[in-house]
Amino acid sequence: MQIQVEFSLVPIGGDPHLARDIALCQQILLEHGLHVELHAMGTNIEGDWDTVMTAVRACHQALHQAGRPRLYGVLKIVSAGDGEKSFAEKVASVQRHLVTAAD
Amino acid sequence: MQIQVEFSLVPIGGDPHLARDIALCQQILLEHGLHVELHAMGTNIEGDWDTVMTAVRACHQALHQAGRPRLYGVLKIVSAGDGEKSFAEKVASVQRHLVTAAD
Amino acid sequence: MQIQVEFSLVPIGGDPHLARDIALCQQILLEHGLHVELHAMGTNIEGDWDTVMTAVRACHQALHQAGRPRLYGVLKIVSAGDGEKSFAEKVASVQRHLVTAAD
Amino acid sequence: MQIQVEFSLVPIGGDPHLARDIALCQQILLEHGLHVELHAMGTNIEGDWDTVMTAVRACHQALHQAGRPRLYGVLKIVSAGDGEKSFAEKVASVQRHLVTAAD
User: Fold this and answer.
1) Comparing C-alpha atoms, which of D53, B27, A19 is closest to residue C53?
2) Mean model confidence pLDDT for chain B
3) Do D74 and C74 touch (CB under 8 A)?
4) Domain range holding B44?
5) Beta carbons of D2 and D80 less than 8 angstroms apart
6) What chain A residue is nearest to D76 in terms of C-alpha separation?
7) Given CB atoms, is C92 within the 8 Å cutoff of chain B?
């Protein structure tokens, strides 16, 4: 099952600077061969369910090993039985409506 | 890795009544032997990562098969390297603070 | 506009124990006259949009003042133009389907 | 209080195509003078609490008026007592760590 996911991962407690943790997780997602789009509030991920969830679990484990005792992850998951538009198509589709509305 | 999860699953489009879908998913979670607490805005789930995620994937698949072409799931995941308080202990711990504050 | 909300608030960095923060926020929600149901992964809140959001903002502000420099809040919001079932009715409605399925 | 928000809004039931709804909401956010970054799984918004929440409420109301009886919104909110890095700085900061790790 192909899914599209928005993922963010926040350590509970400890050092409030997160850029290094996010970079570590980013690398893990890429190593799993996933299509990944980092944005300012999380990361969009496209792939099949098992690969995405294996990668997300690996992020949790890597951050625990890097000294983060508690983690708070948020996943938004879109699944579609008959396929979804790609990330790029989704954004383009909204922008077409915006242009039309501005005419 | 043990996790605690808050899970909600909303079909995109189609029949706006969701109780039957939620009940179907509830049953799947229970069949996976997970500790499950249904509440008005989602379901809290306690278990090891793989069992929880297998059950959540089964919910998505069952709802697709039941005629929901697109699904929107939201997962909040708390993982802890060194174990977490149980659900009951968490609520009790907040309530103790409430009582103290009211004294 | 009446809404139903699931709310959780996690400090980024600092003391990883959250029960006191959650209790403080709980009290603020109650002081705003909202219907509030604490559960193990967050708090369900029922009320009109402005009161709910004023209370949620007050939670953020109170925790900043209590020494939490950065906060991560997650809100799930259900709004309905023509009214929603109450929290209790929602849970009962799912449970009726569970009983029927078990017959 | 300045906040950074990740926002998504999904109609429950009805037409499963959402691009027009998202475009309508996008326009409302822009009309409120907010810094807005659309991505494939939601929209990142930067602004002060009251303006952001007024705009998000206006999105809910506009979609109800456009014929969506029930809506499911998800908001992730980062608030900081002492200011946050901008969206661009956040992404750049993660990318610097990625480059360093690749060296």
Assistant:
1) D53
2) 94
3) yes
4) 2-102
5) yes
6) A41
7) no
Structure tokens that stand for A52 in this block: 């995405």
- Which residue in chain D is spatially nearest to C84 when comparing CA positions? D70
Q: Least CA distance to B67: which residue of chain A?
A: A81
Name the amino acid, one letter, at C70.
Answer: R
Contact D10 B14 (CB under 8 A): no
Name the residue among B70, B75, B80 with its Cβ closest to that of A70. Answer: B80
Using an 8 Å Cβ cutoff, are D85 and D93 in contact?
yes
**CATH assignment at residue A49:** 3.30.70.930
Which pLDDT tens digit goes with each residue over D64-96?
Answer: 999 999 999 999 999 997 778 999 999 999 999
**Tens-place pLDDT, residues B23-54:** 999 999 999 999 999 999 999 999 999 999 99
Burial class (CB in 10 A: 0-12, 13-18, 19+), B99: exposed
Q: What are the distances in angstroms from CA A61 to CA A23, A28, A58, A71? A: 14, 11, 5, 10
Q: How many domains does chain D have?
A: 1
Global confidence as pTM: 0.95
Cβ atoms of B58 and B15 within 8 Å: the answer is no
